[in-house]
Amino acid sequence: MRRKGVNYSKFGYIFTFPFVLAFLIFSLYPILYTAFIGFTNMQGLIPKPIHILDNPFQNFKDLLFDNASFRKSLINTGLLWIINFIPQIVLALLLTAWFTNARLNIKGKGLFKVLLYMPNIITASTIAVLFSTLFAYPMGPVNSLFDMMGWSHAPINFLQDKSTARGIVGFIQFWMWYGNTMIILIAGVMGINPALFESAAIDGANGFQTFFRITLPSLRTILLFTLITSMVGGLTMFDIPQLFLAGGPDDSTLTTSMFIYGQAFKGSYLYNRAAAASMIMFIISGVLSGFLFYLMRDRDEAKLKKAQKSYRKAAKAAVREV
Amino acid sequence: MGKIQKSSSVNQKISKTIIYIICIFLAVLSILPFWIMFVNATRSTPEIQSGLSLLPSSHLMSNLQVLLDKSFDPLQGFLNSLIISTFATLCTVYFSSLAAYGLVTYNWKLRKPFFTFIICVMMIPSQASAIGFYQFMYKLHWTNSFLPLILPAIAAPAVVFFMRQYLLATLSLEIVEASRVDGSGEFKTFNRIILPLMMPAVATQAIFAFVANWNNLFMPLILLTQKEKYTMPIMVSLLRGDIYKTEFGSIYMGLALTSLPLFIVYFLLSRYIIAGVALGGVKE
Q: Do B215 and A116 lie within an 8 Å CB cutoff?
């Protein structure tokens, strides 16, 4: 196709150059710089010469072994992610199964999708402040509702109790994201070859069997995608817990991002400690996504490799015997 | 046989009713908090404290008055957010389309490694580099400037990935060849012919980039310290502060004002947004 004498390949480099340049300046350099700061004594508002600590890993060691607040923030982040992700994926799968079931033929799917996705588009900060106002004590809309329904006799101070505070933060995350997950899963089901469902129906599979034997396995890649994006999102959870309760009560909703923000920008200027915490977060996110890719890799491919390996072993053994 | 069919259809009717009830409950759950927000924006603080109501009252203007009296400037926040989100969105969609076009059209040595690299960096959370980024911007005297919130948008790996998938599915290289024969330069071909062809994908990604920038709290909170530079989400965070402690009516008013533009955009574009979410998930 290409005429001789004109080589267009240089345009590949030219067209991707702005991306690469912006990435190097605004992402790669800051990450390396953050890693470097993690090894130094950079603290305080006024810039002064910094140097690498005698034990370069001192900040990391302090964080992991001597900092109860940081450990708590890691545990909280994991906990908040789990209590939001498990109900989220279960409900999204359930709704997907209902909405894609031709026999049920649910009406108004379009409207339901629009309404269930809605909380996702609204600014998280607005939602956080809204919920903290809705759960106000002693008189807020939720307390009024509980009173009206006769569910409670005295106003409940939701925001002072550790488990309800965590539960509400988890619920907000769940409420904001299950619609998004549902739409992605429905799109995934639409992409499955309809012939698979037809042959399952001919073979007499019921709804459950079709869902667990055909729908779920075909969604593996999309579930992986959802899991990883949700995980990285969960790891960086900031807006909701920060504006909902600012980490309280008693640090029970303090997340890792909030810890980083708090160390560096809320009056203490402990940039080195915050940088070390960012690096730990970065490593965790890398390890988790690598692990998930490994877990969810195509099993058939893995089987094939295993088979090849045993074949090679057998061949070697055969050679030796001869 | 007939009996079995009848009982199964009765079963189906029952399960269908349950499904509708659950779906309607979830829809109400999506609407109710925002409904209360808009209704309470029109009610006075004593009214709000006396109980829940789903019908608006008549204190809209007085709530607005109280809100604006306390140095809350939603118009300034709206303008700042609009400037940042618009330019960041333009950077994201233009340069991502350009990079994706470069990836799909040209045969260059580093094409494959570059694509692998994009997949790897797609997952890096921006919080991981925040400290270094802040120190870097501080040295450049770029804190309290909009540039560090706009320029990084040029490198949006996830958008490049999406655009590449779109181009692979839709672009025929014959168009590129034909325009070369006609003597069009490579940049001109991209700007005049390819970019208009990519408009459906560009529009979808533009909506999401805009909303993501509009809703971003972390970076602006770190970088912007001057009041007149605050974006909408930072303004919202002011409502949590002490100055509004007992003025519930005006808190709801502020929340309603900051989210109103998003509701309007959402209901105008919901069809495209839902389609975009679905497309974004179907990644191979």
A: no
pLDDT digits (tens, 9 = 90+) for A49-100: 778 888 888 889 888 898 889 999 999 999 999 999 999 999 999 999 999 8
Within-domain flag for B275: no
With an 8 Å Cβ cutoff, is A26 touching chain B? yes
* A125/B133 Cβ within 8 A: no
- Residue B48: its chain A contacts at CB < 8 A? 139, 141
Residue B282: pLDDT band (50, 70, 90) is low
pLDDT tens readout for residues B115-145: 888 888 887 888 889 999 999 999 999 989 9
Judge: A225–B281 Cβ closer than 8 Å, yes or no: yes
Does one domain contain both B110 and B233?
A: yes
Let me know whether B78 and B136 are in one domain: yes
Tell me how far apart the alpha carbons of residues B251 and B186 are, in angstroms, rounded to a whole number. 53
Residue B237: which pLDDT band, with cuts at 50, 70 and 90?
Answer: confident
As a whole number of angstroms, the distance between CA A267 and CA B36 comes to: 36
Number of domains in chain B: 2
Which of B12, B222, B259 lies closest to A123 in CB terms? B259
State whether residue A40 is helix, strand or coil.
Answer: strand
Instruction: Please give the Cα distance from A258 to A241 (Å, whole number).
Output: 8
B54-74 confidence digits (pLDDT tens): 888 888 888 888 888 877 788
User: Which of B127, B155, B282 has its CB closest to that of A27?
Assistant: B155
Tell me: do B219 and B86 sit in the same domain.
yes
Segment (H or E) for A214: none
- Fold of domain A69-290: MetI-like fold (1.10.3720)
- Contact present, B190 and B98 (Cβ < 8 Å): yes
CB B237 within 8 A of CB A100: no
Distance from C-alpha of B8 to C-alpha of A207, rounded to nearest angstrom = 13
Q: Which of residues 3-22 of A touch B (CB under 8 A)?
A: 8-16, 18-22
Per the CB < 8 Å rule, is A278 touching B266?
no
Residue A243 touches partner B, C-beta closer than 8 Å: yes
Tell me which of B11, B27, B59 is where a domain ends.
B59
Is the sign of the CA dihedral B264, B268, B272, B278 positive or negative?
A: positive
- B194 and B85 in a common domain: yes
B261 in a structural domain: no
Q: Within this chain, do residues B90 and B228 fall inside the same structural domain, yes or no? A: yes
- B281·A222 Cβ contact <8 A: yes
* CB within 8 Å: A129 and B255: yes
Provide the shortest C-alpha distance from residue A137 to chain B (in Å): 10
Alpha-carbon distances of A236 from A173, B59, B85, B149, rounded to whole Å: 12, 39, 21, 18
Establish if B259 belongs to a structural domain.
no
Res A156 pLDDT > 60: yes
CA A88/CA A178 separation, integer angstroms: 5
Give me the CATH number covering residue B209: 1.10.3720.10
- One domain, residues B42 and B87: no
Put simply, the answer to whether A139 touches B50 (Cβ < 8 Å) is yes
> Which residue out of A4, A11, A193, A282 would a mutagenesis test of the B interface target, given it has the greatest number of B Cβ atoms within 10 Å?
A11
- Provide the domain limits for residue B202: 73-238
- Where are chain A's structural domains? 69-290
By Cβ distance, the residue of A16, A111, A226 closest to B103 is A16
